[in-house]
Amino acid sequence: MRTVVLLLMMGIVDQSISQHYSQFQWLSHLRGRRQHAGLQANDVDCPLECDCLSTFPTAMYCHSRNLQHVPYVPSHIKYVYLQRNQITGIQDGVFDNATNLVWVVLCHNQLNSDKIGKNVFSKLKHLDRLLLDHNELIRLPPNLPKSITDLRFGHNKISKIPSNSFEGMANLTTLQLQANVIEDVGVVFKGLKSLTMLDMRKNRLRKIPDNLPKRLQQLYLDSNEIESVQAGFLTMNPELQFVRLADNKLTDKGLPSNVFNISTLVELDLSFNKLEKIPVVSRNLENLYLQANKIKEFSLSSFCRTIDMTSFSRLRMLRLDANEISARGIPAEAAYCLRHVAFIHV
Ligand SMILES: *[C@@H]1O[C@H](CO)[C@@H](O)[C@H](O)[C@H]1NC(C)=O
Ligand SMILES: *[C@@H]1O[C@H](CO)[C@@H](O)[C@H](O)[C@H]1NC(C)=O
Ligand SMILES: *[C@@H]1O[C@H](CO)[C@@H](O)[C@H](O)[C@H]1NC(C)=O
């Protein structure tokens, strides 16, 4: 009986839906839907291209089904999953009836900045999470809601970020911009009072962004073109715990003395750079990655200023492999100072 109904529906669908489905894609989709039919909510307003479950009526599942447009989003929907389709653009008005949206997931599509309306997201006053990673964007969509806490644009083609892009986003905590082609960000992050995580790996930055948010705890800048670290960069960001600067162009000359000797830092990744010395680090640091540099000498004073039974480092992980030192170069006193390190990789 259900099969008959579904086949009838297919007839209607073929005429009325503008999505460019092949017949077989529709068939397999509807078969999949039949298998879940027990959960399908019949009385819930749900577009044909998507699935809505009676057990979770505020969510609309439209992922991985070759969609080329965002389907109609009913006003009761809070969570819309549109990832892994072939959506290239979104016109203004598409989300106008869906002002309760909290999550919009649009990653792994083909979104093109020129095909995104200026006010697509602007009316979504409750939007919390906007995931747009793995698209073809060359700029951020304008007029993003100030309510967003988690914003992801990784793996796009963004090169510039206008200075007012994140203005007023007082609750933004996570910002992902990795794998784009950003060269400079000016002071665009300055007002982000709640930001704790900034991911800008794999871009073209030549320096650490100025005026980083004060609450920042995790800063990922691996695989950029950074040659130096500004003096006092960590004292101006007193809550930073995880700093990753692997695969940049750092040299000893680019590191002011004591720039990493900051007691809040827990993890520091400086691997795949051009350092010749071990920088001075705080005794509170737990993980230090220095592999694949040009370090020639094991300087215990970088970890402990004095060597005695009571002054020691909290370091647990120390990687020094692929440098120019050998295990023989590690002094015996290291056993006191680095007593929490189980194994030094050289
Ligand atoms: C929004 O709702 C109105 C009234 O129900 C309807 O006429 C309109 O087509 C809807 N707009 C969108 C973009 O779905
Ligand atoms: C930030 O969150 C607080 C508490 O949830 C809320 O009252 C406030 O309106 C939010 N700010 C913005 C800009 O959305
Ligand atoms: C690192 O900073 C601490 C606290 O500010 C200080 O006591 C210590 O001497 C510094 N280490 C070195 C090697 O300068």
Explain the overall architecture.
By secondary structure, the chain is mainly β. The protein has a domain at 243-345: Alpha-Beta Horseshoe (Leucine-rich repeat, LRR (right-handed beta-alpha superhelix)). It is built from three helices and 14 strands. It has helices spanning 2-16, 23-35, 334-337, and strands at 51-53, 56-61, 79-81, 103-105, 129-131, 150-152, 174-176, 197-199, 218-220, 242-244, 267-269, 287-289, 317-319, 344-345. Strands 1-2-3-4-5-6-7-8-9-10-11-12-13-14 form a 14-stranded mixed sheet, with no helix packed on it. A hairpin with a 2-residue loop joins β1 (51-53) and β2 (56-61). α1 (2-16) packs antiparallel against α2. 35% of the residues are buried. Bound molecules: 2-acetamido-2-deoxy-beta-D-glucopyranose (3 copies). One 2-acetamido-2-deoxy-beta-D-glucopyranose (NAG) binds next to loops.
By DSSP (H or I, 4+ residues per run), the number of helices equals 3
CATH superfamily of the domain at 243-345: Ribonuclease Inhibitor
Write the CATH fold name of the domain at 243-345.
Leucine-rich repeat, LRR (right-handed beta-alpha superhelix)
Give the C-level CATH assignment of the domain at 243-345: Alpha Beta
Rg calculated over all Cα atoms: 26 Å
Subcellular location: Secreted, Extracellular space, Extracellular matrix
Protein name: Fibromodulin
Function: Affects the rate of fibrils formation. May have a primary role in collagen fibrillogenesis.
Keywords: Disulfide bond, Extracellular matrix, Glycoprotein, Leucine-rich repeat, Proteoglycan, Repeat, Secreted, Signal
